[in-house]
Amino acid sequence: MIEEAFDAFARSVAAHVACEITPCPVYLAPDRFVTIKLHAAVSGYSEAAIRSKIKEGVWLEGREYVRAPDGHVFIDREGVQRWLVRGS
């Protein structure tokens, strides 16, 4: 039991030291609302396809996307996920 605790502690220290020597990866999770460019990068849809869905009314304001007070369009990732499940 003590050996297991010591081994876990030793692994934790080794991982900490390794991160100081070689930077550990940082994983970022996008916010709920993201720019068209970022949504294109994470979704597989091109920026043109996203803009087309907005322009043609496939994605609706307040449901799949929102406008910031300054007019910028932000994609609601949760809204798009609901759209994917709905199928329309």
Summarize it:
It contains four helices and three strands, in the order αβααββα. The chain has 88 residues and is mainly alpha-helical.
Give structural notes:
The protein has helices at 2-21, 36-43, 47-55, 77-86, and strands spanning 33-35, 65-67, 73-76. The chain has four helices and three strands; from the N terminus they run αβααββα. The protein is mainly α and 88 residues long. It starts with a helix and ends with a helix. The mean pLDDT is 86.
The shape is elongated
Give the end-to-end Cα distance, rounded to a whole number of Å.
56 Å
Structural class, please? mainly alpha
Helix content: 40-55%
Sequence stretches where pLDDT stays below 50 over 5 or more residues: none
**Strand percent estimate:** 5-15%
- Compute the number of strand runs: 3
> Biggest sheet: strands side by side, in what order?
1-3-2
State Rg: 21 Å
Order of helices and strands: HEHHEEH
Largest sheet: 3 strands, antiparallel
Average pLDDT confidence is 86
- Discrete helix count: 4
